[in-house]
Design brief:
Blueprint (H helix, E strand, L loop, with lengths): L4 E3 L5 H14 L15 E11 L6 E10 L13 E10 L10 E4 L9 E4 L4 H12 L3 E2 L2 E5 L11 E3 L7 E5 L3 E5 L2 E2 L5 H11 L10 E5 L12 E8 L5 E2 H10 L5 H21 L3 E3 L1 H21 L7 H16 L4 E3 L11 E3 L5 E3 L10 H4 L6 H17 L5 H19 L7 H22 L5 H10 L7
Antiparallel strand pairs: 1-2, 2-3, 3-4, 4-6, 4-12, 5-6, 7-8, 8-13, 9-10, 10-11, 11-14, 13-14, 15-18, 16-17, 18-19
Helix pairs in contact: 3-5, 4-9, 5-10, 6-7, 6-11, 7-11, 9-10, 9-11, 11-12
Length: 470
């Protein structure tokens, strides 16, 4: 491993200043950049670690960079800006194979004359990360941790996954996959915490973490100096089919997906039951439901301001949350526990043997970490999957609402078979969480994929219709 130097943002202003104009152009174009629609007004350095010396043919920097932007509506004045993890390579010139990773050409500062790029696309920097994980290295403020087994063999050939996602992933020799978190916050990360807890329970439905990367913060804006979780290495499920792609293929061929949906419901229930054994559960009564419902209503009000087309549906959508509050006021209670938090078909893998696995326990990235760590009714995950079936049905060349209805019913049946609880027996709670999820989707699509906005809006129209009490 090359000699490393760790520097803080207060001692190397030249590095970030030289990259600033390039990052202002490149960063907002990335799929995982959360601040789309708002200009970047500046950057500050949280931490920088030189992994390969800049004086060599290939320089390599690990950066944690805070992007400063005008505040979103309702954001606190003290919001420090989102922090992003960047792996920056520096070469005299990029070979053609790395053209998609180009960030730009540096004209001043310590990297003057170099071409900088997203180094995860380059096998050599990806090798550096795997070797650090294999050897449990300590490189400046970076800590590479691992469990004793399985063995991490050196020399596994890396390849970056190019599918659109909110983070970045590198596959090593079809043996491991390293998920590199892009937008990072200090504190416990559920994408590591929950799979570790499930591994201790022996739950085979979730690939167990093999190794992970953490960093100590070096600026003063972080919460009590808590470390950042930066990446998680897990077994790669070779030959697995992504649930979203599998569903779309079945739809395109006009084939039924009910059997797969039913097995996926069973898998979800097994993960929920294992999490309930591994981590504490709580009872939600009126006092606990009140802030939860208030948060749903606040998100609705904020969404209407951000996406005005929601406005006409707001009164009907609000009734979904008010009905839940009314039930709580009447004395109904619910059990809450740790759950996936952002469950949809794209977070599920089906192995060649037909077994389903759940991945990506980070939760909805746009939600605050404290909220993502809170116990929730399992119906929240169920609602996310039901919305995903609806998404798939409306993404087909010919929308297939009956296909979605069949999948939704089969999924709930499978869930009930494994857990003894059928989510459809709690329609008020289910409608509230489906409504909350659809509102989230509307804001997300309006910001990131406007062409997809009609998909959640079709659900909004249905969810805003007040159900017949009879």
């Amino acid at each position: 491993m090359a000699e490393t130097v760790t520097v803080s943002g207060t001692t190397t202003p030249g590095l970030l200043a030289s990259l600033d104009p390039l990052l202002r152009e490149w960063l907002p174009r990335q799929r995982w950049f959360a601040g789309k629609g708002r200009p970047v007004t500046g950057f500050s350095l949280v931490a920088a670690t030189e992994l390969l010396p800049a004086s060599g043919r290939l320089g390599l920097y690990h950066l944690l960079v805070r992007a400063h932007q005008p505040h979103t509506l309702g954001a606190a004045d003290t919001h420090p800006g989102d922090c992003y993890q960047l792996l920056i390579g520096a070469r005299e010139a990029l070979p053609p194979r790395l053209a998609p990773a180009l960030i730009g050409h540096v004209t001043d500062g310590p990297l003057t004359g170099r071409t900088v790029y997203d180094a995860l696309y380059d096998p050599r920097p990806a090798d550096v990360l795997l070797e650090a994980l294999r050897s449990q290295a300590r490189i400046g403020g970076l800590r590479f941790e691992r469990v004793p087994q399985p063995e991490i063999r050196p020399g596994l050939v890396p390849r970056v996954m190019t599918a659109e996602q909110s983070n970045s992933s590198v596959v090593y020799g079809d043996t491991f996959i390293l998920k590199v978190l892009r937008r990072v916050v200090p504190g416990v990360n559920p994408d590591l915490e929950l799979p570790l807890a499930l591994a201790r329970e022996g739950c085979a439905r979730v690939p167990a973490p093999v190794a992970w990367i953490e960093a100590d913060p070096q600026d003063t804006t972080d919460q009590a100096g808590e470390p950042y979780v930066l990446g998680v290495l897990q077994p790669f499920v070779q030959g697995a089919a992504d649930g979203w792609e599998l569903a779309l293929r079945q739809l395109a061929k006009g084939e039924d997906f009910a059997a797969e949906a039913r097995e996926l419901g069973r898998a979800t229930a097994e993960v929920h039951m294992a999490l309930a054994r591994a981590l504490p559960t709580v009872t939600l009564g009126h006092a606990q439901l009140e802030p939860l419902v208030h948060g749903m209503i606040e998100r609705l009000d904020s969404a209407v301001q951000q996406v005005p087309v929601l406005g006409p549906y707001a009164p009907g959508l609000r009734t979904a949350f008010e009905a839940l509050a009314d039930l709580a006021a009447e004395g109904h209670t619910w059990t809450a526990q740790r759950a996936h938090g952002d469950l949809h078909l794209g977070q599920c893998l089906r192995s060649p043997a037909g077994d389903w696995a759940l991945i990506d326990f980070e939760g909805e990235p746009a939600r605050p970490l404290a909220e993502r760590l809170m116990p929730q009714p399992v119906v929240r995950d169920v609602a996310g999957m039901l919305r995903s079936f609806d998404y798939a049905a409306h993404s087909a060349k010919t929308p297939a609402p009956q296909w979605a209805r069949t999948c939704r019913a089969a999924y709930c049946t499978g869930y009930a078979e494994a857990s003894g609880f059928d989510p459809r027996t709690d329609p008020v709670l289910l409608r509230a969480y489906e409504t909350d999820k659809a509102i989230y989707e509307v804001v997300y699509e309006a910001r990131h994929r406007p062409d997809w906005l009609p998909v959640p809006m079709a659900a909004i129209e249905q969810l805003a219709a007040v159900p017949d009490p009879s």
